[in-house]
Amino acid sequence: MSNLSATSTAQNSSTPIVLTIAGSDSGGGAGIQADIKAISATGGYACSVITVITAQNTLGVSAIFPIPLEHIEKQLDAVFSDLNVVAVKVGMLADCDIIKLVAAKIRQYRPAFLVVDPVMIATSGDLLLKAYSISTLKSELLPLADLITPNLPEAAELISSDVPTNKEGMEKMIGKLRKLKFNALLLKGGHLIDDENSNDLLILPNHVEQLNAIRINTLNTHGTGCTLSSAIASYLAQGNDLLRAVQLGKDYISQAIAHADELDVGQGHGPVNHFFVGHANVR
């Protein structure tokens, strides 16, 4: 956590272990399922703590069931007390109590790296985090993160602003976002559908790095945020610095999207192709 130069733990581990703390997607395209696929495909060993069970498919989310706090705590203690967890990726947490518990356990066990994907809104538009829980997320968990990875609607929720519709509007968010307590924030531009590129902004304390990628014309983008944040956590666990880990993660998700139409899953927004050939071991 907040220790981007600390790579000795990762380098001393023969198997870089990455913990995903997130919700389950019964359709398999996002959440814990996407996280495990992405971590595995990029060279990490994935373990998991399930916070929420969703009834979900490529068409949307029909039900959300938060796991009882006591069982979330038992999962966290079981993993941290036995496995050498180098990096943690946090996704869907659902409510204030779960957020507070996860933050407390992160402080207790102090993994080397923490990537937080502030899952609030699904690709389908479904609200995945209760509105009153956002302030708890901002005060309890985001300050602990090495990297936060919101998309544009999530970033807009974090700063109570309108969702930008162009590159200039996206860049105008930087000042307000910097008022949040974070070490680094990857602002994902995938929702700017009129832009021929899918460019992200890595917002650091003193400067901004732009990461460029050609936009890929496909409807199969379910789980892209989960996949990207998990890949970045995996690359951090393997000893890469932040910028390198983010760039590798960006390359990985771009290829996973590019190969998404090779799959035929569901009737709506299908998943990306986590296990496309030829990219699994890049780092």
From TrEMBL:
SUPFAM superfamilies in UniProt: Ribokinase-like (SSF53613)
Pathway assigned to this chain's UniProt record: Cofactor biosynthesis; thiamine diphosphate biosynthesis
EC id: 2.7.1.49
Residue stretches making up the Pyridoxamine kinase/Phosphomethylpyrimidine kinase domain: 25-273
Organism superkingdom: Bacteria
GO molecular function: ATP binding; hydroxymethylpyrimidine kinase activity; phosphomethylpyrimidine kinase activity
Keyword match ATP-binding: yes
Keyword terms of this UniProt record: ATP-binding, Kinase, Nucleotide-binding, Transferase
Listed GO CC annotations: cytosol
GO biological process, one term: thiamine biosynthetic process
Residue stretches spanning the membrane: none
Record-linked NCBIfam families: HMP-P_kinase
Name by which UniProt lists this protein: hydroxymethylpyrimidine kinase
Species in which this protein is naturally found: Psychromonas ingrahamii (strain DSM 17664 / CCUG 51855 / 37)
